[in-house]
Design a protein that fits this description.
- The protein has four domains: 10-180, Beta-Lactamase (2-Layer Sandwich), CATH 3.30.450.20; 197-295, Beta-Lactamase (2-Layer Sandwich); 303-477, Reverse transcriptase/Diguanylate cyclase domain (Alpha-Beta Plaits); 498-753, Alpha-Beta Barrel (TIM Barrel), CATH 3.20.20.450.
- Helices cover 42% and strands 23% of the residues.
- The chain contains 28 helices and 27 strands.
- Strands 18-19-21-22-23-24-25-26 form an eight-stranded mixed beta barrel, surrounded by six helices.
- The longest helix is centred in the middle third of the chain and has 20 residues, at 404-423.
Length: 755
């Protein structure tokens, strides 16, 4: 050790060095010990600090402030300068440490001392004396730039050899990290006692901790659960393969979530939505599992109600048109694979309107219920009998063999059985017997590309032929209807030329919020055919789907929509709007679909958040993993998703949980009669409730009058589309409307409302 260059006092230098070594290496040194040592050092050293002492003070990690006995700063080390943002010249000899304190805290501390009039340096050192050589307290400092900083402040008297006060020493520590840790711990404690049940296990699946919500949900107390394994809750409804798949995902991804059925202590089995996260230490070793789960019984009930309301006739409990179409599409696909014929029978009660008009709707309803029962007795277990509406019923028969003639004979046998069953007398009121006959049309389906809609149209034509024959008759769809098929072929030929001829047009229809402010638009495709004029989507989109032409057409629509968004981005009036683009299942399943979307966005320099892709429920039924992967990849880009025509397919709670949708669109078929049809109104309310529960935006399409709008808004619908707010117009005209060239569009909503 070299002697101090200024005083040569080895003893003083060593004492000073020991103090500062302790102060700088111990994150929380004993204030009393350290400061006592410092006082001894200072008092034993000459008034002028030695070089070594000065070096230690200047390089200390903590802020050090020294005042005279009046509180005026005489020393302000670099750490203090960095902490508070003041230079030496700005504070030394000019202010007291009181200047750095939050005024509110000063006032509060003065009040606690019972002397609110104290507002000077004496407040900071009040209480110092022989019995209290140091004062430690937490304060809030105000930096030069106005920002605040939580600190721990230690004050001590500096005494001379006679014991007289010469000044004060303050050591200041930044405690913001400690405060943050304390806050995080408080938040974690609150989160743990959330409404969701939480269970923490070790790596061997032994339960270590549960929260109060766990006890409320399962019936098991913490004492009963801790030390057990999660199998305590096992219902037995999931087999070994389910748990094997769960652990595979947990081991590979570190996380699993899904729907599971568990058992309460009472024995009651209930559905829950479960999320499991694996916790690893710094070395990557798995240490714990944290499981959160909630009871989804209410959502399952809502899901079941929505499904029943959407797919079953409320009067007869038979499948309705939507469910029939779904089953018919599957039956057509199965027919292609097996080569077996199927048959569609459409039944219409003769003169049913007359009965309704003369005897009333109550009697008519009783007749329809009886007809449904008789139809069910005429078909096999695997066949489908459905009510289309009014007095129209449909029967679908599958697996009639590979011979067309034999299939036709079997279909006719069933039709005759139905005709005779429905011709038997009905006892609808009292002892009076009522008689009704039925007309039946039949269409066979086999290994061909007919859609469900085409088959229904063919069967309907056959039905009207039966009525034209005098009713109470059976007729088949035959070759005389080839004209319609020829028309389809001509339409396909024109469709194949349409892209090359640039015959497609894009229309846009506004979407608005509850205040009728414009948030974006849906892109709608139109075909201006050279030979036939304007062709609506319903006339050519199904054909495009069947032929695969929907893929290049869909790619053209996507590119044009992105080009339009690129034009909108340059105008502040339109930059915040989005465009919703319908994507067919066939287009979405293309291997390079994600890349196609990314290329279109990049090519036109479009913000991905302005593009919304609308998918139908049918897309979700096949190759789920591929669909989820593509959607997640597009979400990472920023693209948004909407589930189109919700309520008309098979989307369930598990699907909505799994796929990254932000929005549901209520099909217009439910909106059309919402003010007059209680079943449609019930479906819409259930969908809105489910959407709000799952935090999904809901858009009602097909809103045509203010009464519908008010009803939907009253029941929680946030976004709307329909003639009430604007009809579809060519995209060029829509652009001009937005810019004020052709009338006033709906007012613009805030940009943060569009997603």
């Amino acid at each position: 050790m070299e002697l101090c260059l200024s005083c040569g006092d080895l003893a003083a230098t060593c004492r000073c060095l020991r103090f500062f070594r302790t102060m700088m290496t111990d994150p929380a040194p004993s204030a009393a010990c350290c400061l006592a040592e410092f006082r001894r050092t200072i008092c034993a050293s000459p008034p002028s600090l030695c070089v070594l002492q000065n070096g230690i003070l200047e390089n200390a990690g903590r802020a050090i402030l020294v005042t005279d006995k009046a509180g005026c700063l005489v020393y302000f080390n670099p750490a203090a300068q960095r902490m508070l943002g003041y230079t030496w010249d700005e504070v030394v000899g000019r202010v007291t440490p009181l200047s750095f304190h939050l005024p509110e805290e000063i006032a509060e501390r003065a009040g606690a001392l019972g002397t609110s009039a104290i507002a000077n340096f004496s407040l900071l050192v009040a209480g110092l004396g022989p019995d209290f050589p140091t004062i430690e307290a937490d304060w809030t400092y105000v930096r030069k730039d106005g920002s605040t900083l939580p600190v721990s402040l230690t004050f001590s008297q500096m005494l001379d050899e006679a014991g007289d006060i010469q000044g004060y020493l303050a050591i200041v520590s930044d405690i913001s990290k400690r405060r943050k840790l304390e806050q995080d711990l408080r938040i974690a404690a609150i989160a743990f006692e959330s409404q969701a049940a939480i269970m923490v296990t070790d790596a061997r699946q032994r339960i270590l901790q549960v929260n109060e919500a766990f006890t409320r949900l399962t019936g098991y107390s913490a004492e009963e659960a801790i030390g057990q394994t999660p199998s305590l809750l096992k219902s037995g409804w999931q087999d070994a393969s389910f748990y094997a798949a769960m652990w595979r995902e947990l081991n590979s991804a570190g996380r699993w979530q899904g729907e599971i059925w568990n058992r309460r202590k009472s024995g009651e089995i209930f559905p829950e939505w479960l999320t499991i996260n694996g916790i690893r230490d710094a070395g990557g070793q798995l240490t714990h599992f944290v499981s959160t789960f909630s009871d989804i019984s209410d959502l399952k009930v809502a899901e079941s109600e929505i499904h029943h309301l959407a797919f079953y006739d409320p009067l007869t409990a038979m499948p309705n048109r939507r469910l029939l179409l779904n089953r018919l599409e599957k039956a057509c696909s199965a027919s292609k694979r097996s080569g077996q014929y199927g048959a569609l029978l459409m039944i219409d009660l003769d003169h049913f309107k007359m009965l309704n008009d003369t005897l009333g709707h109550d009697v008519g309803d009783r007749l329809l219920v009886e007809v449904a029962l008789r139809l069910a007795g005429c078909i096999r277990e695997g066949d489908t009998a459905a009510r289309l509406g009014g007095d129209e019923f449909v029967v679908m028969i599958e697996n009639l063999g590979r011979n067309a003639a034999a299939a036709g004979v079997q279909a006719e046998i069933v039709a005759e059985k139905i005709r005779f069953a429905l011709a038997r007398p009905y006892l609808l009121s009292g002892d009076t017997e009522y008689f009704r006959s039925a007309s039946i049309g039949i269409s066979l389906f086999h290994d061909h590309d007919k859609t469900a809609d085409v088959l229904l149209k063919q069967t309907d034509i056959a039905l009207y032929r039966a009525k034209d024959a005098g009713r109470n008759a059976i007729r088949f769809f035959d070759d005389a209807m080839q004209t319609a098929l020829d028309e389809r072929a001509a339409l396909e030929a024109g469709l194949r030329r349409a892209l090359a001829r640039d015959e497609f047009l894009l229309y846009a229809q506004p979407q608005v919020d509850t205040e009728s402010r414009l948030i974006g638009a849906e892109v709608l495709l139109r075909w201006q055919a050279a030979e036939r004029g304007m062709v609506l989507p319903g006339d050519f989109i199904p054909l495009a789907e069947e032929t695969g032409l929907i893929v290049p057409i869909g790619l053209w629509v996507l590119d044009q929509a992105c080009a339009e968004l690129g034009r909108w981005a340059s105008d502040p009036r339109t930059a915040g709007l989005y465009l919703a683009v319908n994507v067919s299942a066939r287009q979405f399943r293309q291997p390079d679909f994600v890349m196609q979307v990314g290329d279109a966005l990049a090519r036109h320099e479009v913000d991905p958040g302005r593009l919304k892709l609308e998918l139908t429920e049918s897309l979700l039924l096949d190759n789920v993993e591929d669909v989820v992967e593509k959607m997640q990849a597009l979400r990472r880009m920023g693209v948004h998703f909407s589930l189109d025509d919700f309520g008309t397919g098979y989307a369930s709670l598990s699907y909505l949980k799994r796929f990254p949708f932000e929005q549901l669109k209520v099909d217009r078929s439910f909106i059309r009669d919402i003010m007059h049809n209680s079943e449609d109104a019930g479906i819409v309310r259930a969908i809105l409730a489910m959407g709000n529960t799952l935090r999904l935006n809901v858009v009602a399409e097909g809103v045509e009058d203010a009464e519908q709008h008010a009803y939907l808004a009253r029941h929680g619908c946030a976004f709307f589309q329909g003639y009430l707010f604007g009809k579809p117009v060519p995209l060029t005209d829509f652009r001009q409307m937005l810019r004020g060239a052709q009338g006033e569009p709906p007012p613009l909503a805030e940009a943060d409302r569009v997603n």
